[in-house]
Amino acid sequence: MKIKIVNTSKHQLPTYETGASAGVDLRANLDTPVSLKPLERDLIPTGLFIELPVGYEAQIRPRSGLAIKKGITLLNSPGTIDADYRGEIKIILANISNEEFTVNDGERIAQMVIARHEQAEWEEVEELQETSRGAGGFGSTGTK
Q1: Nearest-angstrom CA–CA distance, 128 and 131
Q2: What is the pLDDT of residue 120?
Q3: Where do the DSSP E strands lie in 2-138?
Q4: Domain extents for the chain?
Q5: pLDDT confidence of residue 138
Q6: For residues 66 and 44, what is the distance between their CA atoms, to the nearest angstrom?
Q7: Among positive and negative, which fits the CA dihedral 17, 23, 28, 29?
Q8: CATH architecture, range 23-116
């Protein structure tokens, strides 16, 4: 699949790190480092703009290494970039650790997965088919 991309950053295009990778790493595109104190969040630019085909979205997800090692995650995760969005991809980075974290230019801060999606056609009905779970919510299927 080919996706049109405009790269106004100082960095290379996103690449898949291995042959089986589902996502590409996105890098911060900063003129000066950004410091995030504990529980702070900021919008970090990437300098990337994409044109997705209709029927596809780009999902923006946290990087597991940053999450476990530094307590850095993304809000609104996974974020969705719709096929008709043409603005810059920006990352809502959040520090949920107890220590300040500095985001440097070129740092890998998120990953992007391209995924096919469907648009639902709603069929309004009076009732839904019964299942063994029914309306059971969180934890209703047991712990084992």
Answers
A1: 9
A2: 95
A3: 4-7, 23-27, 34-36, 41-45, 48-51, 56-61, 72-74, 79-81, 90-95, 101-103, 108-116
A4: 23-116
A5: 76
A6: 15
A7: positive
A8: Distorted Sandwich (2.70)
